[in-house]
Amino acid sequence: MLKKREPSGREKDEESIKLLEQLREKLYSDDVSAARRAAFNLSWKQEDGLDILKEALFSGSPRRTAKAAAAYGLRNMQGRMKKMAFTVLEQGLKHRKTDIRNACSHALSLASRGTREKSPSERPPKSGKIEIREIPRRRTSGGQIRTRGMHERNRRR
User: Which domains does the chain show, CATH number per domain?
Assistant: First the structure.
């Protein structure tokens, strides 16, 4: 069971304290998908998110999912916390535990790749829209346009 987290004083109200606590519990979940989702949501929470992710990464918890999810959250940190998050990941490279080192090195290697151009085989297929082209009309040898079904009696006078 997780120890109760001390509020940092930056939280605005009781609701934000509850939300941070729920995200923290989900971060330590056995479900990798839920842990990554919680880490991503914490990456938008500025200082409080950084503190929780840092705690999860360096905690004595044996759960590798929490450490990998915390590294994912630190890699996706936004705004003014991004540099601090990368500093935490670099500190993790020097940690004595191999699972922390591996999670941090993997997160930094993915972050350094950035967005790359997809090859044509990876790109989604072009939309199935049909291009409408105009069909040229046929002209008779006299230069007049021949139309079907228009006889003398059908022409307007």
Answer: 14-113 (1.25.10)
